[in-house]
Amino acid sequence: MQFSNLNESVSVVIPGYNVASYIEASLASVYAQTHKPREVICINDGSTDDTLDVLHRLQNIYPDLIIIDQPNGGACSARNAGLKTAKGKWTQFFDGDDVILPQKIESQIALACSEPDVNVVIGSYQEVDSNLKYIRTLTEAACPDVYIAIMLSRAGRTSSHMNRRSAVVRAGGWNTTRKSSQEYDLLYRVARLGGIAKFDANAYTQLR
After folding, report:
1. Is the pTM of this model over 0.90?
2. Is residue 155 a contact partner of residue 146, using CB atoms and an 8 Å limit?
3. DSSP at 124
4. In sequence order, what are the residues at sequence separation of 6 or more whose Cβ sits closer than 8 angstroms to the Cβ of residue 153?
5. Cα radius of gyration rounded to whole Å, the chain
6. I need a labelling partner for 81 at 20 to 30 A (CA). Which of 40, 94, 111, 172 fits?
């Protein structure tokens, strides 16, 4: 069932580098959400495979799909390009080889609206293999303090989070110089702005 608070608009931003084999399943999972995103933005980050061709084919299935094609600059550069285009109040950054279950956005929007001043929802997630076969679940709600969660590496992953777009912009966006733990770097800077971080115990994100 569609989540009732339609004013909570969500932009889904998907960077993709050589994800031709995975992007169709990823996009299908986004368009199957019970809380429909305002927009879906895919950034082809200089792929050397058929990612861009696949995206253009999928645009025939999803006519509102926004495609940005740019030279390879890394995932953070691609996310920032999508952030500049995004118009939603909330931003779901989502890697092009991951999958989200239908209730993911609905669940996290409900948490985001549960009290004022929420800037980020930190999601639990499942690890799966390349064929989406289940491996294990990591539940991040067991560590409800955001700074302790960051230090213990128990603060989710990029695709399992939901961010208030204005907070990400105020925090300076994604740091393109970092080669790893980019989501923790962004989470720390968003947390420093104040506001509230909520933890979602539901593992509605599948990370390959």
Report:
1. yes
2. yes
3. P
4. 184
5. 16
6. 111
